[in-house]
Structures
1.
Amino acid sequence: MSEKKQSVLAGFKAFLMRGNVVDLAVAVVIGAAFTNIVNAVVKGIIGPIVGAVGTKSLEGYSSCLKGPCGVDAKGEPIGVNIMWGSVLNAALTFLITAAVVYFLMVLPMAKYLAKVEDRRKAREGVKENIEVTELVVLKEIRDELVAQRARSGGYGDGNGGPGAAPGSAHQQY
């Protein structure tokens, strides 16, 4: 039983140490901190600007569905209110968060990855061009050697080297 418990703990430790789990944890922490910043911008800047058109902050906008609507002496709402200002506030927070994530993170990363891919393709194109050029040169060397053999009677240089006649002194068995 102890051995099984240790293997489960070892598996759990391996799971936690996997790179994508750590990256996800970091993303959640940064996302939580970023949410606070966006909420502050919406409440401190955008809310008052929208409120300048009306008379309240975004949180205060509501419509009475069933009256009488208002707030009692304890500060609790009376009647049935639709708090559409809170929904508008959440929607603006979402749009700002999405815009910041897209323009400051996704778009630059996409451009960077496209540049990396272009460089990789360019390097592969150069390698392919070099390989083709080397192949052409090797074919030319082969053709020149064949032409030399044909001019010398097909027996090479007479020293038993490559292309030597069968039965010459340096023939290998």
Note: Residues 84-151 form the longest helix (68 residues).
2.
Amino acid sequence: MATPLDPQAGRSAQDVTPGGVSRTPAQPVAGVFGVVFLVVGIAGFIPGLTTNFDQLSFAGHHSMAMLLGLFTVSVLHNIVHLLFGIAGLALARTPGSARGFLVGGGVIYLVLWIYGLVIDHDSAANFVPLNTADDWLHLGLAAAMIVLGLVTARATRVAGPSAPDSRR
């Protein structure tokens, strides 16, 4: 069965938001990041996926719980991932907010990466908590989110009557 077309723009109804703005690649990308952050936030509360679960603290560098035995987590860390996931799903609804989530979230992760490099992992300033694996993951997330947010921004087009063909 064929997908119904938007009569004004010749686009499928799936590619147009209720406000008449075309869906962009930023929206599903932001949604995927949102889902991943939700899964990571939930996984941080599951014994087995989180080793040393009995040593999970609310915040601070004293938490010895490790997601997948690699990334230091705390209750606060998990809550931040859950909130980031909810934000990603909510902001994926429109092209502008999806781009904002990707670029803004990438900047936040870039700041977290720098913070993780600057602070001593055994100091009280390490309230998230972070370890070396977290630091490098944050750099990767920052780069991916910023690049994807900027690259997918170019695909935004407002649905409406097609421009007249200049070749006529």
Note: The chain is about 50% helix and 5% strand.
